[in-house]
Every structure is written in structure tokens, then in C-alpha cells.
Design brief:
By secondary structure, this protein is α+β, with helices and mostly antiparallel strands. The protein contains 8 helices and 4 strands. The two termini are 28 Å apart.
Length: 189
Amino acid sequence: MGEKLLWIRSGFGLSQTELIERLDLVGLVNRSEVSDFERDVREPDLETLMAYAELAGVYVDHLINDSVDLPRELPAAWRVEQVKGRRPTRQVRAPANKTVVILLLIIESADRLTREENRARMAVEKSHLSLHQMKRAGENEYELVFSHVGEEDLDEQVYALLRDIKTEAGRNNCSVKIAAREKGADRYW
């Protein structure tokens, strides 16, 4: 389902914040939650699913049923173009960009207990890093792959991941030292 939700957002050319405003879910859903929906970390509630379906001009079944694909051209994308007075040409495409991000992650417990640190690391890897084709690159380093529609979308996804890692470590009574950079580039988060 997450891929379909990302497909809809990217098809309308919206950032996560713009999507929340467009769906009229301000105060009910935040950017981190949208990121979680798109990465299949969590599922949206019925109200959110209905808002996505209405925006795209499809039935909720299209979103929740894995055996039903979204139409190549979303009906609502055509309506949006027509309302703006332009010739309807917009097609919804999956994210075209993939970026490899190197993540340095040091997890420390307040009591310096290795068991707590290992538990926190396993939780972070399973719940968050594995969603990005995680590869270990060193003792505290990971290579992650992000699919995105543009630089702003990539930034939102990376920052959401960093927040999620910090939260997950905190649940395990640990703190983190974390750095992320784009592989082969001079870009850092």
C-alpha cells in the first residue's frame, strides 16, 4: 500500500506537507506519519485512506487490495489539470530517483550496557533500516537506498528516518549519535 500512496503523492507533485494540506488532514497526520505510510511502517486510518482515494479519484479498494493496481493515469490528476485550464497531460509515475545514503549510527545506553545497546540496534535495523535495503558497511555504518521524486522528498524521508531512529533508541533507554551523507556526493543530513 505504501508504494501506492507514494505514487499518488508524487503524481500530484506534492511534498508530504503539501499532501497533508491537500487531504485536509492538518493536525490529524504529520509528515513523519506520511513517511511511515509510504514506507509501509504503519497503515493509515480509514479517514486518511478515504482522503487519499478521493484525491486520486479511485476507490479505497485500489489502495488496500494488493491484487488491484492503480490506473496508470489517475482520474483526479486529469481533473486537476483541467481545472487549472491546461491540457490534461499529467501521468502518475513511480519515483524515478534512487539515492544511496551512508548512515553512521552509534547507540549508547545510559548505563553502558551492551545488551540494551544491542537490543536498540536490532530494533532500529528491523523496524527502520531494513525498509531501505539495508547493507552493513562497517561496525556502525549502513548503506541505505532511498526512492524519491526529488531533493525535497529525499530530505523529508531522511529526516523522518533520523527522527524514527532516535525515538526507537529512546524506547530502549539508549541515545544515538547519528550522521547521514549521500554516497559519492558532498551532501549531509
